[in-house]
Amino acid sequence: MYEINETHDPNLKSWVESANDPNTDFPIQNLPFCTYKNRFGANHNELGVRIGDRVIEFEVLTSGQLLKNLKSYPQIYIEDISQGATETRDQLRRILVNALSEGANSSSKAEIEASLVAANECEFVQPFSQIRDYTDFYCSIYHATNVGSMFRPDNPLMPNYKYIPIGYHGRASSIVVSGTDIKRPKGQNRSDADAPPVFIPAKNLDYEMELGFFVGKGNELGTSIPISEAEEHIFGLCLVNDWSARDIQAWEYQPLGPFLAKSFATTISPFVVTMEALAPFRVPAFERDPDDPQPLDYLNDEQNQKFGGLDIKLEVYLQTEKMRQENIEPHMLSRSNPKDLYWTIGQMLTHHASNGCNLQTGDLMASGTVSGKEKHERGCLLELTWRGTEPLDLPSGEQRRFLEDGDEIIMKGYCEREGFRRIGFGECRGKVLSAE
Fold this sequence. Notes:
The longest helix has 15 residues, at 86-100. It is built from 11 helices and 26 strands. By secondary structure, the chain is α+β, with helices and mostly antiparallel strands. Strands 6, 7, 8, 13, 14, 16, 17 and 22 form an 8-stranded mixed β-sheet that branches.
């Protein structure tokens, strides 16, 4: 597991003043990676590190002296950094923290200053140049139980749920970055069981609040990844909105699971919060009921049980077109936390590779909807409105069962713990457009 060290010191301050704002997602203790369009309008993208309201332009930084002594230093692409040795990434983090801290030597400070770009001048894009594969899991037992109760009230959980991290293969090509508008999908709808299906725009459009993680170092085809080494293969985390067309899904998902109801769009936040930055916010894996089976040996590890969980506060907000016109702030729909996931990210990754599947640098995996046991912790409208039977009242006087055209979903995530600095993930947002 990643260790807590001096880079997590809550008393660290930066000469980049905006990083010292107690409300920023990006203090010196965070330093997430991102990719953005060059501020001079060049056609190529730039790798950056976020600090306060600034971005460090990595290409400028690597041309100086600050990083020249870093052994085995990878090139300027996030793929190279993410698959580099953990020790190398840790050394890079220490160098950046030292150069950004108050009291940094003048030459280091000067190099950083020369590489800084205003974040509001950047157009953030997907952090990896290519997300080769995308796998979405189903790892919240509260979400799985709620959804199962709607469709199978006598048998909410399938018999395999407590033995195996359930997942499906998603569509990497339709992953988009925060701020991208989402066109309402069309598909087959058979809401009337006595009539043939019709091909129409989705009526029951939904979001899913999820936690995503990127593969750093892959594995060869035919090999597996031991649970004790799983997190060495995880580079960092982001927020994920797995948009879902529930009416399309209800008709198509049997017998092979989600397909067109999911593949039209998945939104991710642009900042990759590294595993190193998250070290202070590790918690034990989900505590199973005494009658539940323990994970099979290949998914069971003492360190993973002690520290495999993540304490991240996740929030979902909705702002309708009417709310924007009337200057009403986005309305919070739910709060949840991935520490409530039945399976850890390490177990997800190990299980994925257990059959010899070759994971690759830049692959994205997501947790599935992150829900808790309380109603306000439900991570999607399907749960919050109980399949549309319990509509939500909004401060504009409107109601919602599912998303309507013009609705914007804003997801946020941050970590807080006494004795450490708050760090955040930025936003994951998307607005629904008409299918026409």
